[in-house]
Amino acid sequence: MNPPTDLTDLLAALAAGVDPGPFALVRRDGATHLDLFTGPVRTVDRLADLPLPAGPAGPATLALVPFRQVAERGFACVDDGVPLECLRVDRRARLPLADVLDVLPDEPVRTSDAAFDRSDDEYAGIVARVLGEEIGRGEGANFVIHRTLHARVQGAPLTAALAALRCLLLRERGAYWTFVVHTGARTLVGASPERHVSVDDGLVMMNPISGTFRHGGAPADRAALLRFLADAKEVEELYMVLDEELKMMARVAEQGGQVVGPYLKEMSHLAHTEYLLAGRGTMDVRDVLRETMFAPTVTGSPMENACRVIARYERTGRRYYAGVLALLGHDEDGRQTLDAPILIRTAEISPDGTLRVPVGATLVRHSTPAAEVAETHAKAAGILAALGLGPQAPAADAGPVRRLADDPQVRAALAARNAPLARFWLDQRLPGALAVPTLTGRRALIVDGEDTFTAMLAHQLGALGLAVTVVPWHAEAPVVGYDLVVVGPGPGDPNGDTPKMRTLRALLRALLDGGRPTLAVCLGHQLLAGLLGLRVDRRAAPYQGLQRTVGLFGTPRRLGFYATFTARATADRQDGPYGPVELARDETDGAVHALRGRGFAGVQFHPESVLSPDGLAVLVDLLRELLPAPAGELSPAGQA
Known about the structure:
Its EC number is 4.1.3.27. By secondary structure, the protein is α+β, with helices and mostly antiparallel strands.
């Protein structure tokens, strides 16, 4: 049949037992209306193939991006063959929220045979394994492992989805998008709390959300919320996803992302803490989507290895879970626009009534299996309630909503979270404001060990005046012509004999043999320490997302660590194969936080991290030693 031109046509088609054709009903971020988009649906292979033809201002394409598209970045995934579908927006109607509520089906959704694919005990076992075998062995700072509730919808699936939408509109609050999307092959209904990425007027924004305060639909208790805001596990979890999304912003915005917040996002069954990242960019919005697949809040960090871990432990495809809806279009001046919420708190319903509700928990070093099991139940509560599979939260009052985010003590507790963070990412800065004359114009090569912290590091070095190139560890790119080579961070055991470890060791050895100025960060530092004759071993407890004040060559510095391994030494100086080496180490266990010698330096921490308020100062000190001469007095760079 022809696509519906308004909601009345759509519901009339359903009442007649006819599929109304593809459509989407979307309420965005507290709006008093919903958009009805209609048009044909097609399948494309790549994000670059998403149609975005020149035309009038407004939305042009709504895409359903499955998790398997992460393979476009070369990352691992279980390929479940779920398609990248896109609805071409031929018609758009703006419908008042009150009118929509009046006509949507007002009836309970009925389901049967509801069960998780992994029981609570099975999921708790997976959590324990990830904590011990992945975070405990240096494979990453955090990982998101999901489970899926399966059920069968009784009655017409699309009618059930619209009834669930009505329930979400009435009872869920704080959602970024509340929606139904129907393509004919599937129907998605949900209330996603989280913007993944948006582009408007050249401003790129991301919205990392982490930390879950559960109140089960009852009014949130202020004292309990304040305890939650002070909880170390919840604080560190948000900092880690903030770092990970800053890595993405560093790839899509010319000067990286500025951090705004944190804020409290209050929803019907729970509350989250969140930041907003903003930066100017000129990329095609489809490239922005590609470079930001997918949010660390639904994958983990570092991203590339998180995808490997997900594939190993989940063993099944994620379908649309952790992917995005993406609304692409143009503004009045012809500039591209993008609005992309993450596909979480979302149910997928097949035409035969098969229902899937995926949900995950973020596993960090402080996690416990029982708490993460409970978190999956809490996160699913809103959508499950709308589908008749859980208790309803109270309906929203007609008057002003009481927001704990407005409480002075809550606001103070949120503001206090920024006190220990790096001002580099919090403050606005003009280009050139931080440039160091002796570094300006010098060329630096960063070799990425599979952790895009290197993108943030590139922005910091660029802010100091260097011209920076980043290459992956396996690239056969020459390192000649650079004044400085940075061997960067990445996951893995530095004592291992994998291709990555062999390649990075060989690179470091060549740089040291050639006397080339070299800076090694985290994994690079561990490999450098091994070449200098230091012992490198696993810490008793991981330093993932940990901030510490450490002595650094006579100066106390506050810095962020993401490491499971460390070099160790029993003295502050030693002679090595490349001359004397000065070590900054922990007196209690001999852990080496930094080292320096003639023409080289290594740091175990991440100076570029938002957890390193002294990171930029440390970089300046080290680089002034490694590159002491003004740019105009440099001799040609040597060969490696």
